[in-house]
Amino acid sequence: MKLLKNKKRREVLESSLQQARKDPGSTKAKILMVARRIFGDYGFHGTTTRMIAREVGIDVSTLYYHWGEKGDLYEAVVLDINQDLRKKLIELEGKIRGFPLGKRMEIAIDVMVDYLFSHPEITSVILSRYFLKTRCKTDQNIQLPEYISNIAFSMELSKNRKKVPARSKMQVLAILNAIYTFVSGAEFFQASLGIERGEYVSLVKETLRFVLIPAFDKPTSDARGKREEK
């Protein structure tokens, strides 16, 4: 019975999300957009439905009409982020296919850094979902295991997309953790460095390329070093 109830709830949630995506100017879509940002800024427990409703300019009852309780809206945000990430990674995989590993990583770093800085709530929700305790009973999770395996396969760290070794997954986690840290800690790091946002984002890309590409693309790096010695 509980399984059927959860399945029905998910179907309703996905239907509402589909409606919001089809009509970005609708009240339903505006609520979702604001909820993503506020859940990203304050986490699940720091966010109230009144905060979201006030930001959208509606009554709380209108929010409940479109999305139900806070937990339902939070689930919608997590599901929405899942769909966005999946779409972006599929798009990225198409862009980098066929290039040497070093070039694939260079493109991937640039694309994902720009994307996550444009949508900082994604990183915030991911980190709070996995590293902070939330008293929200939800069936929705950011599908990190799936994303990690797909990235490892795209980087040729594994020959089998469905059976990726733990070592390869850990290497991908190191990459993701580096990006998430720079994005989520942007305000603190910018202040520490005394630089503006544009320069900070450029330095994040430069630093990630400097650290990560030689670590994974060793043959290319070794060859480059020998050429420079000559």
Helical content, roughly?
Answer: over 70%
How many strands, which pairing sense, and closed or not: the largest β-sheet?
Answer: none
Using the 3D structure, state the CATH architecture: Orthogonal Bundle
Q: What structural category arises from helix and sheet content?
A: mainly alpha
Q: Based on DSSP secondary structure assignment, what is the total number of beta strands?
A: 0
How large is the count of helical segments? 12
Strand content: under 5%
What's the number of domains? Answer: 1
| Fourth-tier CATH superfamily name | Tetracycline Repressor, domain 2
Assembly category: single chain
CATH class assignment: Mainly Alpha
CA gyration radius, whole angstroms? 20 Å
- Provide the succession of SSEs: HHHHHHHHHHHH
Mean pLDDT: 85
Distance between the termini: 72 Å
Contiguous uncertain segments of 5+ residues: 220-230
Which word captures the global form?
globular
CATH-defined topology: Tetracycline Repressor, domain 2
Keywords:
0% strand; single chain; globular; Tetracycline Repressor, domain 2; 230 residues; 12 helices; mainly alpha
Summarize the structure.
The protein is mostly helical and 230 residues long.
Describe the structure.
By secondary structure, the protein is mainly α. The protein has a single domain (9-218), classed as Tetracycline Repressor, domain 2. It has 12 helices and no strands. The chain has helices at residues 2-22, 27-46, 49-56, 60-67, 70-96, 101-118, 120-131, 144-154, 166-184, 186-193, 197-216, 218-229. α2 (27-46) runs antiparallel to α3, α2 (27-46) crosses α7 (120-131) and α8 (144-154) packs across α9 (166-184).
